[in-house]
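Researcher: I'd like a structural prediction for the single chain below. Treat it as a standalone chain; there are no partners to consider.
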Amino acid sequence: MRKKLAFISLLLSSLVSCSSNDNLTILCPTGAPSIAFYDHLNDDNFITNSSPANIVSSMTNSGSDIVIIDTIKGVDAIKNNAPYKLACNLTFGNFYLASTGHDDNNQLDNDDVIINFGMGQTPQKVFELIYGTSFNNISYVGNVSMAAKCLQSKKTLDGKDDVDYVFIAQPVLTQALNNNKDAFIYANIQEEYKKITNKEMIQAGLFVKNNASKKAINNFLKDLDTKINSLLNDATILNDIADVEAFINKYSINPTIAYQCINNGNSLGLGFSYAKDNFDNISSFLSIFNITLKDEYIYEI
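Model: Treating it as a single chain, here is the predicted structure.
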């Protein structure tokens, strides 16, 4: 009965969405942020892309009405005259420091071998903010999937050296933990960040094109807020996905893994907060990158 009610709720929500969004076009990265659009599998106006660089470069006058991208990258694009404004945030950190199970004392020390991803980007900046820069054996791989391989194998990518800790993100963390039973979460980075800054981490932002229909955008945002909260309250909606293969192809996440993440304390960090209401947290996070958040970057509801 619970699943039937969830399905009916999702169906009704989708019908409302279709009638109120005026065919808004949406571009979203694969991975955690895309799960906010779990009901858009068969929506041709919802496009996913695995390359953040491609998404940022598309933020032009001919770009999608709605673009989801790392808030840092999106605001930086606005600074460089991208015709968009930040409307809301959809993820609030899904970073974790995981132990491979190799470290004898299970204590992060300066000589431990650490793998991170995203050199010069959010993962490096956040790690250094929390743990400093005194580690002797930290290496960077090209993306989070490569980091997951190191967590699973307990080895560097070339297989030559043992690895003690991996800075990683959900949802690939869940799959890696499934494949390495010795591995475990050493630290929830969102919690560590809050201890230091007394602020909430932010990650993916939803950016709205300046010439998009305000009425359509406002209706869309209200609907999205409702649907995300519905998912967080009952993630079994994801277990009702009929075409799992198509979902994986579009979202790059198995809906079962997404369900596990949400059901496990919402480790995807999924949520909804209007940027105008979250200005202080966003501004604090941007300051790590020496970016100043200005009122004119924020979409007014």
